[in-house]
Design brief:
Blueprint: H1 2-14, E1 22-27, H2 30-37, E2 44-49, E3 69-71, H3 78-82, E4 91-94, E5 106-109, H4 116-121, E6 126-129, H5 138-141, E7 154-158, H6 167-174, E8 183-188, H7 195-203, E9 210-213, H8 218-224, E10 227-230, H9 234-242, E11 246-250, H10 253-256, E12 267-271, H11 277-288, H12 291-304, H13 309-317
Parallel strand pairs: 1-2, 3-4, 4-5, 5-6, 7-8, 7-10, 8-9, 10-11, 11-12
Helix pairs in contact: 6-11, 9-12
C-alpha cells in the first residue's frame, strides 16, 4: 500500500491549495476502499476502477482533461501511457524504468536504482533521483529524535499494510527466546491477511508482546522504538527521518532491488523469505550491542532526509523550481 500512502501524502499537501483539484484513479479493492473511507478528502475525489478492468481501458474512466497526470504504478509500458496522453499535457511517474519513459516529462525515482544508460537513453525526460524526492508525511518530522538512547529497550515490528510474506511471524519466531528481555510492539496493517493465525498462534503465545491493529499514529511508535524491523518500502525512510535504526526484510524481489541500502541508514537483511533465523538474530544483537553503529545509521538518515521532499515534488507538479 506504499503507493497509496505516497499519492495521499502528495494529495493532502496540494489539497491545502484551494484552486487545485485532484482526482485519484485506483482499483476498487476492498482494502483500498476501506483505506480511503477512513480519510478526510480535502479538495480531491477518488474514482474506483472495476478490479477486472483492462489496464489499457483505465483512461476511459476519466471524463475530463488534467494539467498533470501522475503515475505511481511501476515500470509503465509505452502503450499504457499512450492511452492517457490525450488527457493531459504533462506526465509525471514515480519509480519507473519502463518503456513509457519516452512519454514522461519527469520521472521521480526515489526508491529504485536508475542506471545511467536509462538516463542517457531518455534525454528528453527529467530524472529526479534519491530520498530527497520521497514525499513522506510532514508529521513525521515532528517526531525526529533529539538524542539516541545508548540502551536498547523498545523494539518495534511493522511489516507494512498487508505483510504478504508473513515476515511478522518470521521475526517473532526468530526472536522468541529473547522477547521478554525487551518491550516489543507489533503493528498489524489494515490489509493483513493472516489475522486468524495471528490470534490463534501468536497473541496468546507471546503474551509479553503488544499487538496493535491499524494504528493511525504510527510515527509515535517509530519514535518510541530504539530499533525497528520493517519491510523495504516507505517505512524505511520514515524510520530514518525520525532517527530509529532499522533492520529491513524485503517482501518481494522489487523491494529487494530498491536503492535504499546505498544510503547507509539501515541494515538490509535481504529478501525476507530467504533470511534465516540465526542471521536475523545475529544482525539484531549486533545492532542492540552496537551503539556507534546505531548512531552512524541515524546520522546518515538525517543527512539524506531533510523533510522537504513534499515541497520539492509539489514544486515539480506545479511547475515551480524548489531546490
Amino acid at each position: 500500500m506504499g503507493h497509496l500512502y505516497r499519492i495521499l501524502n502528495i494529495s493532502d499537501y496540494l489539497g491545502n491549495t484551494e484552486h487545485i483539484k485532484i482526482t485519484i484513479l485506483t482499483k476498487g479493492h476492498k482494502e483500498t476502499i476501506d483505506f480511503f473511507s477512513k480519510k478526510s478528502l480535502k479538495n480531491y475525489n477518488v474514482i474506483f476502477l472495476p478490479n477486472d478492468v483492462d489496464k489499457f481501458s483505465e483512461s476511459n474512466f476519466i471524463t475530463s482533461n488534467f494539467d498533470t497526470i501522475i503515475f505511481d504504478t511501476l515500470d509503465n509500458e509505452i502503450e499504457y501511457l499512450k492511452s492517457f496522453a490525450n488527457k493531459t499535457n504533462k506526465i509525471i511517474s514515480f519509480d519507473d524504468l519502463g518503456t513509457g519513459l519516452s512519454l514522461c516529462d519527469t520521472v521521480i525515482n526515489a526508491l529504485v536504482n536508475t542506471p545511467i544508460e536509462i538516463i542517457n537513453k531518455y534525454k528528453q525526460t527529467q530524472f529526479l533521483i534519491g530520498p530527497s524526492y520521497l514525499p513522506i508525511r510532514k508529521e513525521i518530522m515532528n517526531y525526529r529524535k533529539s538524542k539516541l538512547s545508548p540502551l536498547v529497550q523498545n523494539v518495534l515490528i511493522t511489516m507494512g499494510g498487508s505483510d504478504p510474506s508473513g515476515l511478522t511471524f518470521k521475526v517473532l519466531d526468530s526472536l522468541s527466546s529473547f522477547l521478554n528481555d525487551f518491550s516489543v510492539k507489533v503493528i498489524i496493517g489494515p490489509s493483513f491477511k493472516n489475522l486468524l493465525m495471528l490470534k490463534k498462534e501468536y497473541i496468546e503465545r507471546f503474551n509479553s508482546v503488544e499487538f496493535l491493529l491499524s494504528v493511525s499514529n504510527i510515527e509515535e511508535y517509530m519514535n518510541w522504538a530504539d530499533i525497528a524491523f520493517c519491510s523495504g518500502g516507505l517505512t524505511v525512510y520514515e524510520l530514518a527521518a525520525i532517527g530509529t535504526p532499522s533492520l529491513v526484510l524485503c517482501q518481494n524481489q522489487h523491494e529487494n532491488t530498491n536503492v535504499f541500502p546505498k544510503y547507509g541508514f539501515n541494515i538490509k537483511l535481504g529478501l525476507g523469505e530467504e533470511v534465516g533465523s540465526s542471521e536475523l538474530t545475529n544482525k539484531f544483537f549486533n545492532l542492540v550491542n552496537g551503539y556507534e553503529l546505531r548512531k552512524e545509521l541515524v546520522q546518515k538518515g538525517y543527512e539524506y532526509i531533510d523533510g522537504y521532499a513534499l515541497e520539492r515534488v509539489s514544486g515539480v507538479i506545479l511547475k515551480e523550481e524548489i531546490s
